[in-house]
Amino acid sequence: MHSRNVGRIQIADNIIQTMKSAVYDIRETDPFSSKLQFTITNRDVSPYGNRIIMMWQQNRDSIIKLFPKSQEFQKIKRLICRVWKISIKLMRTIRYQLKVIKFLLT
Questions:
Q1: How many domains does the chain have?
Q2: Within this chain, do residues 58 and 91 fall inside the same structural domain, yes or no?
Q3: pLDDT per residue over 7-25, tens digit each?
Q4: DSSP 60
Q5: CA–CA separation, 61 and 19 (whole Å)
Q6: Other Cβ atoms closer than 10 A to 97
């Protein structure tokens, strides 16, 4: 059972016991090829939230490979910082020009 795979043995046993008490023939199989490397939280969380966590754990390495290498990342970061500084200077210049125009109009 999926619950047994993520460390929820009691839940899996309760499900099997309930199904057997309803006269269902149960054959327990694990559809997952490997054990998951995280624990599901005990607080009230949507099953979808836990599913997203599981998907992230399964796909994490392939997603990280899609991101640029650290040197490329540093270049992108510097470029973004440069553009940000230029935009701040531009905004200050525009603000100053608007103050001058407002002064001239009054």
A1: 3
A2: no
A3: 678 888 888 899 899 988 8
A4: H
A5: 38
A6: 10
